[in-house]
Here is the input.
Amino acid sequence: MPDHSLQHVAGADVPLLEVDHVVVQFGGVTAVNEATFVAEAGTVTGLIGPNGAGKTTCFNVISGLQKPTRGKVRFRGRNVTGAPVHRRSKRGMGRTFQRLEAFGSLSVRDNVRVAYDIHRGLAGLVKPGAKDIDALLERVGISAYADERADSIPTGTARLLELARCLAGDPKLLLLDEPSSGLDETETDDFGDLLRDLAAEGRGILMVEHDMDLVMGVCDTIHVLDFGSIIASGTPGDIRRDPAVQRAYLGYSDDVPEHELVGARAGVGAGAVEETRTDLVPVGAASDATTVIPAVGATTPEDVR
Ligand SMILES: Nc1ncnc2c1ncn2[C@@H]1O[C@H](COP(=O)(O)OP(=O)(O)OP(=O)(O)O)[C@@H](O)[C@H]1O
Here is the structure.
């Protein structure tokens, strides 16, 4: 069994974010079950798992939208489990959502201006200059859309606008919920480079993401949730090789005969699994390179907001 105890980076006193034995129950459903993991400053951390595994619920607990049934969340060494969203935000936590939150009737530039105002300029103390806003648009790669209405831009661009709005708050921790959906391959590559740059500045990034190429390519550490529990934590290489992860994602494991597992979780024939042996493809997630394996009993839950 892998060790899921809280790990500290050498030299750092406390991790940027600690999720400590968090449990979330919705009536009879245990959405998160004793989840314990950390996200460190200066690194990109992935939180992955099949549909309904509890990723969004975890994000909601971390950002303050969902009170946990048990357990603690510590951010920059302080227990924030009971703190409201705005206090976590003031302390340096920023989040983007699966559902886009920009003001549709405003231009892309004005959306970023409003985000700056909310985060920094409400008291009139700090006003962002046009240069700051344009630099941010440039940084996330959406300058060409600066004067477009936010409701007229492509979905992938709108996700990058969400990221720009989040960065306007200069967060120490970025929580990104499926940030690459809607991006094409080149945009996804550029986005991965941007994540690495943001981490190199010392920010921590925790991302829920279904694009396994992106996750495996940019994450320093990956935590895998399945049925609410963390079943593996480690580097991309560790995660790829982990038999429990292979079982959760693919319905097979190298150390267990395929015929015992394939039908149990994935509900597909061994031939289809054979095509995906070397790649992790989340159940229910589309990929043009591999067979999509539907999860037995998978749900498409609404975010808790
Ligand atoms: N408000 C709620 N009431 C009851 N059950 C819920 C609620 N929110 C989530 N759940 C259940 O909790 C479990 C975890 O859901 P969650 O949305 O966190 O998973 P997820 O990993 O984010 O899934 P996806 O990848 O599909 O977004 C699911 O079984 C879901 O049906």
Summary: DSSP finds eleven helices and ten strands in the chain.
